[in-house]
């Protein structure tokens, strides 16, 4: 005696599930240049490691004798798999079944995936397409009643969508058109990626057309819109590149807040000096320079992983390794408003330092900040409130912190180069200059009486400038220990690696007091 | 037909100096014009080598983020 008939039925049901929404829908997905959810999971997980949960859940049709005719799977595929050898939860929408919408969703599947990530402390990768399990206009007819969002007991998905951010790394990939709940699940992540063919929006073109905005999907929510707005962190040409970006993001992080970031072997000499650093900063203070080559040369070779490049661009943020140890690195980009902190840059900093705090990554800041952005647009954007929020976020961190002042540190934004209430390491390059206010443009106002009384005001202005410039040498500041160390910039890598080594034993695998928000 | 590229300002700023007028040959990453923002000179550079077809702004003019400032032909 065996259980062969039952095994045959199980295999039959599984084979139906593998067919997704049917051959024609799969062909349409491929014709659109998009992979199916199962191909995506295969592309994301290490080969052969995906253990699916609930594959045979779906809507079944039976003949008159009660025999299975067809099983249309739920449009959520989920389970556990490995990524670079580490177990993660994978959760994908199947667009071939009712466009990924709630009509074909079994509500408990995505909830279980989110809950499993939380309770088993496993990184979560959401692969999102369509409305991400949200309702469609037709839902009311299939259910026969209107759905109160969340309803009674329906809030669990929303609970974990937020709660997981304080527990495990959450990566979200938007592949195709992503709307409504799908957009929310994409944005509610630590790191979101979309392909350049994809689009994300709260509501799509037919809806916004009623507002008088006649836009294509990508004009409304394409990568150029969403990466610049900061709603999505990164855009790739292909889905495979999106999977690679997700893998790389996770490689710097522990599996949960109950671990510390994984340390790797480092083949790069921690004492390596790059002569180019000695000449990289122009002596002419009005001239800008590229920050990214500095980052690339001071961190372990090839280890810098930038995130959110298109948003709040006066600040560069990303992960890197120093002597094999992961750090969260932020740096100014003088090409954007001289490196001043715009409202967007402040929002970017808040999310970034919160991410570092959540997953116990030491923070390195390469600073060149002339202050908060000024002007009417900056005032309208509430730059100062976002600015003090960024200050509070920095001050609330507890992870080890090291700042290199590359050039400017001015004003209140200049203050926020280290957490105010605790010890951190700080070094100033030879090119560093600071003050409560930049001298440029301020001298005429501050010395108006002297200039007005001078025979030759231009010559007098020159004399005052010379006098003040001598005073703002960083060595004068160092005399009184208002700055600890002025360094040869070629020493930067050695000192940053030294910092990472000092920081490593201080990292504590316990949840941060902070509860992270998207 | 030679490919024409629109070069855009990445920040809102005033145009301080035009360094490559229409007809000038520029190399990749060579400035076409220089903006001034927060007392800094910020170049807008050619994304690839080519000839400047047209500079669409004048010195002293305010430009907005994303505004087309020049066209470039390979």
TrEMBL record, chain A:
<dbReference type="InterPro" id="IPR051047">
    <property type="entry name" value="AccD/PCCB"/>
</dbReference>
<dbReference type="Pfam" id="PF01039">
    <property type="entry name" value="Carboxyl_trans"/>
</dbReference>
<dbReference type="InterPro" id="IPR011762">
    <property type="entry name" value="COA_CT_N"/>
</dbReference>
<feature type="domain" description="CoA carboxyltransferase N-terminal">
    <location>
        <begin position="1"/>
        <end position="265"/>
    </location>
</feature>
<protein>
    <submittedName>
        <fullName>Methylmalonyl-CoA carboxyltransferase</fullName>
    </submittedName>
</protein>
<dbReference type="InterPro" id="IPR034733">
    <property type="entry name" value="AcCoA_carboxyl_beta"/>
</dbReference>
<dbReference type="InterPro" id="IPR029045">
    <property type="entry name" value="ClpP/crotonase-like_dom_sf"/>
</dbReference>
<feature type="domain" description="CoA carboxyltransferase C-terminal">
    <location>
        <begin position="269"/>
        <end position="516"/>
    </location>
</feature>
<dbReference type="InterPro" id="IPR011763">
    <property type="entry name" value="COA_CT_C"/>
</dbReference>
Automatic annotation (TrEMBL), chain B:
<keyword id="KW-0092">Biotin</keyword>
<dbReference type="Pfam" id="PF00364">
    <property type="entry name" value="Biotin_lipoyl"/>
</dbReference>
<protein>
    <submittedName>
        <fullName>Biotin/lipoyl-binding carrier protein</fullName>
    </submittedName>
</protein>
<dbReference type="InterPro" id="IPR000089">
    <property type="entry name" value="Biotin_lipoyl"/>
</dbReference>
<dbReference type="InterPro" id="IPR011053">
    <property type="entry name" value="Single_hybrid_motif"/>
</dbReference>
<dbReference type="InterPro" id="IPR050856">
    <property type="entry name" value="Biotin_carboxylase_complex"/>
</dbReference>
<feature type="domain" description="Lipoyl-binding">
    <location>
        <begin position="1"/>
        <end position="73"/>
    </location>
</feature>
């Amino acid at each position: 005696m065996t259980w062969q008939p039952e095994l045959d039925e199980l295999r039959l049901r599984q084979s139906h599930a593998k067919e997704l929404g049917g051959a024609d829908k799969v062909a349409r997905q491929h014709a659109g240049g998009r992979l199916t959810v199962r191909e995506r999971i295969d592309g994301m997980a290490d080969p052969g490691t995906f253990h699916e949960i609930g594959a045979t859940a779906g809507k079944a049709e039976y003949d008159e004798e009660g025999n299975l005719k067809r099983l249309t799977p739920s449009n959520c595929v989920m389970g556990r798999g490995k990524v670079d050898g580490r177990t993660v939860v994978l959760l994908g929408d199947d667009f071939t079944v009712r466009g990924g919408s709630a009509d074909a969703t079994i509500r408990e599947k995505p909830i279980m995936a989110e809950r499993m990530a939380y309770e088993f402390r496993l990184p979560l990768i959401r692969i999102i397409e369509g409305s991400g399990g949200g309702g469609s206009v037709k839902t009311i007819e299939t259910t026969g009643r209107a759905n109160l969002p969340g309803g009674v007991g329906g809030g669990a998905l929303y609970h974990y969508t937020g709660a997981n951010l304080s527990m495990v790394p959450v990566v979200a990939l938007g592949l195709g058109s992503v709307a409504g709940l799908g957009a929310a699940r994409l944005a509610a992540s630590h790191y979101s990626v979309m392909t350049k063919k994809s689009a994300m929006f709260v509501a799509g073109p037919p809806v916004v057309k009623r507002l008088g905005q006649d836009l294509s999907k990508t004009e409304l929510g394409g990568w150029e819109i969403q990466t610049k707005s900061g709603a999505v962190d990164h855009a790739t040409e292909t889905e495979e590149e999106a999977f690679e970006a997700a893998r790389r993001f996770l490689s710097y992080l522990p599996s949960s807040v109950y671990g510390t970031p994984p340390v790797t072997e480092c083949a790069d000499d921690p004492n390596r000096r790059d002569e180019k650093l000695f000449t990289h900063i122009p002596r002419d203070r009005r001239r800008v320079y590229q920050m990214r080559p500095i980052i690339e040369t001071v961190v372990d070779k090839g280890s810098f992983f930038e995130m959110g490049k298109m948003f709040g661009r006066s600040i560069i943020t990303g992960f890197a390794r120093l002597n094999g140890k992961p750090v969260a690195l932020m740096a100014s980009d003088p090409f954007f408003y001289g490196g001043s902190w715009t409202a967007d840059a402040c929002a970017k900093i808040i999310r970034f330092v919160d991410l570092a705090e959540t997953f116990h990554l030491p923070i390195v800041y390469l600073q060149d900040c002339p202050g908060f952005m000024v002007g009417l647009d900056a005032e309208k954007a509430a730059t100062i409130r976002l600015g003090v929020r960024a200050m509070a976020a920095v001050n609330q961190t507890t992870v080890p912190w090291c700042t290199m002042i590359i050039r400017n540190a001015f004003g209140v934004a200049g203050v926020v180069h280290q957490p105010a209430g605790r010890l951190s390491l700080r070094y100033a390059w030879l090119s560093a200059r600071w003050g409560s206010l930049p001298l440029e443009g301020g001298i005429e106002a501050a010395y108006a009486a002297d200039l007005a009384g001078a025979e030759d005001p231009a010559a007098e202005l020159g004399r005052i400038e010379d006098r003040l410039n001598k005073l703002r040498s960083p060595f004068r500041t160092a005399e009184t220990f208002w700055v600890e160390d002025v360094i040869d910039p070629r020493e930067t890598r050695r000192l940053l690696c030294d910092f990472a080594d000092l920081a490593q034993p201080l990292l504590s695998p316990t949840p941060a007091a902070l509860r992270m928000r998207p | 037909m030679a490919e024409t590229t629109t070069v855009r300002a990445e920040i809102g700023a005033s145009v301080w100096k035009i360094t490559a007028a229409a007809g000038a040959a520029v190399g990749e990453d060579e400035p076409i014009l220089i903006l001034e923002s927060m007392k800094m000179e910020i170049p807008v550079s050619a994304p690839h080598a080519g000839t400047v077809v047209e500079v669409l702004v004048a010195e002293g003019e305010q430009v907005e983020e994303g505004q087309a400032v020049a066209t470039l032909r390979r």
